[in-house]
Predict the 3D structure of the following.
Amino acid sequence: MDDCIFCKIVKGEIPSKKIYEDDEILAFHDVSPQAPVHFLLIPKKHIRNIMELDTSDTALLGRLLFKAQELAVDLGCGEKGARFVINCKENGGQTVDHLHVHVLGGRPLDWPPG
Ligand code: 5GP
Ligand code: ZN
């Protein structure tokens, strides 16, 4: 998608602090961190949101979540844990229309969200 910020990050047209990359997945630090650890994982393929997942994306999403677990541990969240979040559309607070998983850790987080 030409006008998608995260597709531009995938293509290197917008810089990012990358944590991990392979053929299908990119992980990078959030530009506006809300916790000491706050990074995003995205499929390189443009999927707008979790409502638009297809059954053919099952393996990709499984890999994405296992990578989220692995990187959270690598960044020091293994012992005390972290929050793994997927916002979706307007009511879910999604601001970038390219599917992404937030991982937030390094401090206790409130629940429920406001
Ligand atoms: P959403 O609200 O859609 O779930 O989250 C989008 C996230 O993307 C926000 O936390 C925001 O800070 C982050 N973000 C938006 N633009 C950029 C960018 O250009 N670079 C990086 N690294 N993060 C971004
Ligand atoms: Zn995109």
